[in-house]
Design goal:
The chain is an alpha+beta fold. It has 15 helices and 23 strands.
Length: 468
């Protein structure tokens, strides 16, 4: 998916920028970037982080760059930040989101006289370059950022830095977050609010949906007021977010604990241990254990010295292998044991099926799988949370297509998404048999939404029920 960080300070900002970006490493796997502005103007560095983490790749840049303002990112695909020269002057730009109507937007720009776009190695247009071109259609930056958000189908949040300050624009429905931190020396923008805490910043505010604000070393000013409607991504709490993260005032760990507790309240399984698949399944497992009275155990230990979440190859088969290599088993907590195993979700099913097979090989007696979110029915339209190129990569869609002999409509999918229906129960049982679990029970959508503590109409649930 990706994340970003920006800082405006009275003195050199590179230390804060470097570590603020590094704290977003759990959100992206492909590229990192830093851009600073100082007495010598703009300076930028972009590196591939597929085979080495951000901190290693950028340590040398951190030693040589200097500036009083800077923005940077962890990106799951396109190289950024970009340095743009236009009638607005020179600025640096980084974005997080997904643009579904790239072709129509490009054609619109060509029709109005835009000359060209540079293609990336895969033949696609850099989404951040496209956003810059949209911003440049308007007479000032604020109008341009607002215009880009209005015409993009999908979502976009961005940081833009020029010599006057750093501007942030949160997606118009707030699908992704932007927090503002403050300390005596300046202000920062961050996708993850925890990223600035150890750097001495305190919480100042969170931008609302569609809000545009600017920071300098002196202050933070709202330039466009937020919208009332919000559809923040619920998967932020379920999967993306680091346990110390907080969105809309609700911490990831608190939400996961509540989610696990709600799962336990609907369950009656007997087991020796409750365990979470590291890292994103642990919080829900703790909540489940506390509510059920079943002891919490750690049959999986994540090998953290070298296998970090962001340090993953792009080829799916290799990702599956490394996902397995990162987890070490404690065999005496597995052999002859009945385990409740909680993972954040089941997407393709490949990794969890292989995990189950391995646990049974070690000697697990029973394996009761409890995903901490409902069955995923749709590929996300708003964030690049999966590398799947087709919804048929989803195990739910493969099973439903098989059960319905290929005749799958939105109406049929709605039935399968409803946990009260016979079709839902049939789908879950087919997934259980295909995966080889003893039992399988997903978290319900209503319980998961309630666990966030937010009003349900403020949460995006598209990947589970197709509703925008």
């Amino acid at each position: 998916m990706g994340g970003f960080f920006g800082v405006a300070a009275r003195q050199d900002c590179v230390f804060d920028l470097f570590f603020g970006i590094d704290y977003h490493s759990h959100l992206g796997t492909r590229r990192g970037g830093m851009a600073v502005y100082g007495k010598d103007g703009f300076n930028r560095a972009i590196h591939n982080i597929e085979n080495s983490p951000f901190r290693t790749k950028f340590n040398k840049d951190m030693q040589t760059m200097d500036g009083i303002m800077g923005i940077g990112c962890i990106s799951d695909y396109e190289p950024q930040p970009l340095i743009i020269r236009s009638h607005h002057g020179t600025y640096a730009l980084t974005t997080v989101g997904k643009i579904n109507n790239v072709d129509s937007l490009v054609q619109r720009l060509f029709d109005t006289g835009h000359a060209h776009f540079l293609e990336m190695s895969g033949g696609e247009i850099n989404a951040t370059e496209l956003v810059a071109a949209l911003i440049n259609q308007k007479e000032n930056l604020i109008e341009g950022m607002h215009y880009a958000q209005e015409v993009i189908d999908g979502s976009i949040s961005l940081l833009l830095m020029n010599k006057a300050g750093i501007y942030a624009a949160r997606d118009k429905y707030g699908r992704t977050p932007i927090a503002v931190g403050k300390k005596e020396e300046g202000f920062c923008f961050s996708f993850e609010s925890f990223a600035y805490k150890n750097l001495g910043y305190t919480d100042y505010k969170e931008l609302g949906p569609g809000e545009i604000a600017v920071i300098t070393d002196q202050n933070c000013v709202t330039l466009l007021n937020p919208n009332e409607d919000m559809k923040i991504c619920t998967f932020l709490w379920v999967y993306y977010g680091f346990p110390a993260s907080s969105y809309e005032g609700i911490s990831v760990e608190r939400m996961r604990n509540a989610c696990g507790a709600k799962m336990a309240q609907r369950d009656s399984v007997e087991a020796d241990y409750v365990a979470g698949v590291p890292d994103s399944g642990i919080g829900s497992a703790v909540g489940y254990s506390n509510a059920s009275g079943i002891p919490y155990g750690r049959p999986f230990i994540k090998y953290t010295p070298t296998w970090m979440r962001s340090f993953m190859p792009t080829i799916q088969t290799k990702r599956n292998l490394i996902a397995k290599m990162k987890l070490l088993t404690v065999e005496d907590l597995i052999k002859d044991k009945r385990l409740v195993l909680i993972d954040d979700s089941i997407v393709r099913g490949t990794q969890l099926r292989e995990t189950a097979e391995y646990l049974f090989e070690i000697g697990a007696k029973e394996l009761h799988i409890r995903p901490a979110c409902p069955p995923i029915m749709y590929g996300c339209k708003y964030l690049n949370f999966s590398r799947s190129s087709s919804e048929m990569d989803l195990i739910t869609r493969r099973v439903i297509t098989r059960l319905e002999n290929g005749n799958v409509t939105d109406e049929i999918l709605e039935e399968y998404a409803n946990p009260e229906t016979e079709k839902y129960a049939q789908m879950v049982e087919e997934i259980r048999k295909e995966m080889g679990f003893t039992t399988l029970q997903f978290c319900r959508l209503d319980d998961m939404m309630d666990a966030t503590g937010l009003e349900r109409n403020k949460l995006c649930t598209y990947c589970w029920n197709g509703k925008e």
